[in-house]
User: Fold these one by one.
Assistant:
Number 1:
Amino acid sequence: MLRNLRRASQGIFLLIFLYLFLQTESKGANELGYPVKIFLDADPLLWLTTALATRSPERLLSLALIIIAATALLGRVFCGWACPLGALNDLAARLGHPRQRPLGWYRLKYLILLFILAASVFTLQPAGFVDPLSLTIRSLALSIYPAFSHAVSAVFDAIYAAQLPVLTDASEAVYSLLKKTVLPFRPPQFHQAFFLGALFLGIIGLNLVERRFWCRYLCPLGALLGILSRWALLKRSVSEGCDGCGACMASCRGGMGPVAEDGWKVSECVACMACDDVCPQVAVRFGFSRNKARALDLGRRRVVASVVAGIAAVPLVRITPLSKAMAADPTLIRPPGALPEADFLRRCAKCGECMKVCLTGGLQPALLEGGFEGLWTPILVSRIGYCEYRCTLCGQVCPTGAIKKLNPEEKAKVKIGLAMIDPGRCLPYSHGIPCIVCQEVCPTPKKAIWLEEAVARTQSGKEVAVKKPHVDLELCIGCGICETKCPVLGRPAITVTSLGESRSKDNQLLLG
């Protein structure tokens, strides 16, 4: 009964997670479904590391306190009963025959946690890279879900290409249903999608080596909850009827260790209670007790090494040439409402939610545009998509406040960059060909791109009336629609750079 109850709980939370993930999409003009950021809001690791890195008093109250309270009472119930990545790992483990004897590397995740906490104290925020909820959302949003969308589209394209009326009519109804339920509003495409997907599938594939490999040995959130669970009231007890058969070890989701009670590692128990179900002697029981569990022994040298490594990572990450120049990187265009770069990096969880809800697909995961610290943070790539003038969805889904919530009136005053024209590639300037696309699509109430009437001469001496575009430095907000719509293929004739962004006093074309 307990096993079935736990499986039902995992299934329900996974379905809720996937439902909220699908709802994290535009439902109309600046309207959003219930975002999956609810899970991130309840993430104790992101809550703690963001509070440490930013010294933010407003982060003291959080849904994460509910998870912390539940852990203090019942142990790592979140890992065994609610975590979506844990549920996916359990499903993957059923597909293979993982080894039954644990490797025993459980200390590794605690050392990773110490590294992250030490770095966070010194204002580096590495938790988003390995936090299980952030990792899962990022992987699904930027790789798995787009791959699913393109695969479904390919199947229906093949059906339409067959030109069989019966199949075509049936597929139309099915495709319409899918568009209303699980398919995205637009076909998503993201840089690094293959790498992110391979990384996620690799984590899932580790279950073929050992069940819940990620959860047992790598998950820093599980390590944090494991530390908190030391004081949990729900504990396991073993009666004298135990004959040491090892059935409980084979079924244990956490790989806790010896059969006997004195060797039981409470910090590794995910409260699956499988040992209670499978014990042939009915010697295992779970009940409430105030007895304090044994302290976790990580080894003094390992602890010191992890903390020192976390502290040393901060200057090492920030002394690279990429990081030194990132404030002036012309391609580092952040979403509207993004905090100043240093504060933005301290908060961004690299979860990918802002990229998922971007209406045009312009928000892409950064590689090294913002230095190693800015890996997988959002940047606007205007050649792919522009920032919709009335859209504020990215600020609505950000779980850590790295992107502020703005109303449309506030957003209209925010500059994320500046458009600049390349006369050598612009059709009216260089070739005498009339073109006013950039001015036509400019969304600002008073056009930020204005036109100068001029006369161009062809090689034969014929005069052609053209209108040469110019950018108004005060009116341009850097939305990038001019670059997206520019008809010049390859490198466009007008590009947006981060110059002039509202969030920086230094990254300006004209200082003072």
Number 2:
Amino acid sequence: MNKKLLIFLMATGVALAFLATGLQAGTDVADTFKVESKEYKSRKKVPATLSHKKHAEEYGISCGDCHHDKDGKPIAGLKMGDDVQRCVECHTKLKKSKDNKKDIMVLENAMHRNCIDCHKEINIKAGDPKGRKGPAPASCTKCHPKKKK
């Protein structure tokens, strides 16, 4: 085997090892983070803060309860640190149209529906028939504090 081929094969092997390690490592998941998207250049409200750790550990919510497939079904078998797509990769519209203000392909609608529907369900189970009041925040100001001037 000539020397150039041997060096090429060794370099390819090292690159594949790094790639495989990176794929296995998954994603670091912060305990708490801002639910925001850089695609929105200006915001009317402060981004909501999500306690990922509380939702997963204290509330017992599985990863698939929030992260779903193209049909809106929970992704089975997800665990903390697995790579998941960002919402905007599928929910690509950034503006609501006058014809369809609830279009689920609008990023803001998708994020709100994912969170608010779940929170309302929890509040209904806790005794509020409308799901607006209870242990889970379901109003704008509970998740989006006013901007500081």
